[in-house]
TrEMBL record:
Lineage: superkingdom: Bacteria
Gene3D superfamilies: 2.40.128.220
Keywords per UniProt: Hydrolase
Protein's name in the database: Lipid-binding putative hydrolase
Record GO terms (molecular function): hydrolase activity
InterPro entries: Lipid-bd_put, Lipid-bd_sf
Source species: Lutibacter maritimus
Pfam families listed in its UniProt record: Lipid_bd (PF12888)
Length: 173
């Protein structure tokens, strides 16, 4: 009985050692780079404010809200603009141009939160052009949008990349 117990312990320890050493082994040729998506230059979390057509007055008395931009499942140079259903209720797909960091949507594109339509135009990401409260240099984003619920009014959205630093969270306009 003592030999069986000893054999089981030895077997367990051997399996543990084998698992430990093989789990640390690199896969294939050692290249573990997962790569990136076609919209990597645009993707991320942003602090964005919606402004009236004058580009100065906050729309509906709003302030900065967190937007997210990310690739579509097709990874074909299109991305989602998403305010996470917080304020303007905008989640729509736009096409990107990575050579000049611009983006725009089709006229009357589907808007997924309201099931209406939105036209996104004049979108641009400007690299390293904004300094946050924590003195971190980040990218800026800008785009215009016309919604089916307010035809003829072009809202201007502008903001900057989110750093995640506490002093940069929840900025005010």
């Amino acid at each position: 009985m003592k030999n069986i117990k000893s054999n089981v312990v030895n077997l367990f320890m051997t399996l543990l050692l084998i698992t430990t050493f093989t789990s640390c082994d690199e896969v294939g040729d050692g290249d573990l780079d997962a790569g990136s998506t076609s919209v990597v230059e645009f993707a991320g979390d942003w602090w964005v404010i919606a402004l009236e057509s004058d580009g100065i007055t906050p729309a509906y008395g709003g302030n900065y809200v967190q937007f997210t931009t990310y690739n579509t499942a097709a990874d074909d140079g299109t991305m989602w603009i998403d305010d996470n259903n917080i304020f303007f209720q905008i989640k729509t797909r736009v096409s990107t141009n990575t050579s000049n960091l611009t983006f725009s949507g089709d006229v009357n594109s589907s808007e997924l939160y309201t099931e209406g339509t939105v036209t996104v135009s004049n979108g641009k990401v400007t690299k390293g052009s904004y300094t946050t409260s924590s003195n971190t240099v980040v990218d800026e984003i800008y785009f215009e949008a016309e919604f089916d619920w307010d035809p003829g009014t072009i809202y201007k959205f502008k903001g900057h990349k989110r750093t995640g630093f506490l002093e940069d969270e929840n900025p005010n306009y």
